[in-house]
Amino acid sequence: MPADRYQEKRDFRRTPEPRGKGKRDRSDKQPVFVIQQHDASTMHFDFRLEVDGVLRSWAVPKGPSTDPAEKRLAIPTEDHPLEYADFEGVIPAGEYGAGPVLIWDRGSYRNLSEKDGERRSMADALHDGHAVVELHGEKLQGGYALQRIGGGEETRWLLVKTDDEHSDARRNPVSTQPESVASGRTLDEIDAAGKEGDEESKGNG
Fold first, then answer.
1. Which distant-in-sequence residues (6+ apart) come within 8 Å of 99 by Cβ?
2. Three-class SS of residue 31?
3. pLDDT tens across 161-194, in order?
4. What letters, b where the CB count within 10 A reaches 16 and e where it falls short, cover 50-78?
5. Over the chain, what is the mean pLDDT?
6. Is the pLDDT of residue 201 over 60?
7. What pLDDT sits at residue 200?
8. Which of 4, 156, 160, 180 has a 20 to 30 A CA-CA distance from 70?
9. Is 152 helix (H, G, I), strand (E, B) or coil?
10. Structural domain harbouring 86
11. What dihedral do alpha carbons 101, 107, 112, 113 form, nearest 10°?
């Protein structure tokens, strides 16, 4: 989904989300990934990969798993600006996606996508509906595959852990490691801090 959808859905006079400055040249750095827990109309985790200057994004209702037997639904959402990888805070009531956002994991990733034995660009792999990445995060490491299912308005993806040395069917990081890797706060603490800030703003208004 084009990045202009991101701009169209937000009123930057009210939301603290980054406006975004368009594409940036990061050819000298490894591409980044971020996973943000977001308590909007429903709780979910946003899985984002830097691809060609933007963050390609999927909403994962149950969050990522470290068990290769688990296939997690991933619903594509609009591209986000790269600056969004650093966003943690509260989207105010009445705005698109209202609710607290927590940086659950982040780091760099390596593209492992191949076709007929040849390495493919992430853009081409995602266009064709199958991509594999190796995450180097603070909570998640190792390979993950994104597989598109369905088509048209019903397009969905699956996010699946590949079977490697970082696989662990017994581990459940979504529930056992709820804190932000950026601030150490929980989602409730971020939400409470946002509400306190709103009250202070009203008192000074």
1. 38, 39, 40, 41, 90, 91, 191
2. coil
3. 999 999 999 999 999 999 999 999 999 999 999 8
4. bbeebbbbbbbeebbbbbbeeebebebbb
5. 90
6. no
7. 53
8. 180
9. helix
10. 4-203
11. 30
What is the model's pLDDT at position 1? 54
Q: Specify the number of domains making up the chain.
A: 1
pTM of the model: 0.89
- Structure-token pair, residue 181: 């890797």
Strongest mean pLDDT among 18-27, 34-43, 195-204: 34-43
C-alpha span between 10 and 102 (Å, rounded): 19
Look up residue 169 and give its two tokens. Answer: 């069917």
C-alpha distances (whole Å) from 193 to each of 17, 90, 187, 196 are 16, 9, 10, 5
Q: What phi-psi label fits residue 129: left (phi over 0), alpha (psi between -120 and 50 degrees) or beta?
A: left
Strands (E), the chain: 32-39, 43-51, 54-60, 71-81, 89-91, 99-111, 114-115, 118-119, 130-137, 141-149, 156-161
R_g over Cα of the chain = 17
pLDDT at 29 over 90: no
